[in-house]
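Objective 1.3, modelling of assemblies. Example input:
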Amino acid sequence: MKMVKVIGSVTTTIKDKSLEGFKLLFVQSVDVDLKEKKEYFVAVDTVGLGEDEIALMVTGSTAKRTDITKGKNVDGSLVAKVERIDLE
Amino acid sequence: MKFGRVIGNVVSTIKNEKLHGIKLAIVEPLDDDGNVIGNNEIVGDFLGAAVGNLIIWIADGETISSALGRKNIPLRGSIVAIVDKVDMEKKNKVLNG
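Predicted structure (tokens):
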């Protein structure tokens, strides 16, 4: 999975039917020190995230393994909100 | 999924027969300022995206099959949404489609 920061929300009207009703968030990859990297994605929010929050994004076909993205045309889902990172 | 813009279309008549009837759009990935940050790709388009549209695309093979109702199509990637707007409050930026 990738660690990403939520940096925006995406509004779409014309879209694949299976994406209807999803909250699509614009996210940017971050390092473990939360430094932003030049890598951006659009992902389905499945846990209720807000801007600036850090999340875990699952990609590929495994992104469909949540109740709401099952069988949908999705290859990026935010499945966890990061509360703390422990670096020994 | 990836965020980007449609910059063109590919016309091809001599191709794998399973690709017939599929509009092929050229898309390039963008960052939060709308600048290009990667190589462009050719993806299937079923939504009728126009050149210049901001879009979202998925890098899989199943979306095409479900859209066309036929299997084993030799094409990876499809446009799944035309973007109206991307709102980034904290960075006070907006990208309009």
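Chain B has a mean pLDDT of 96.
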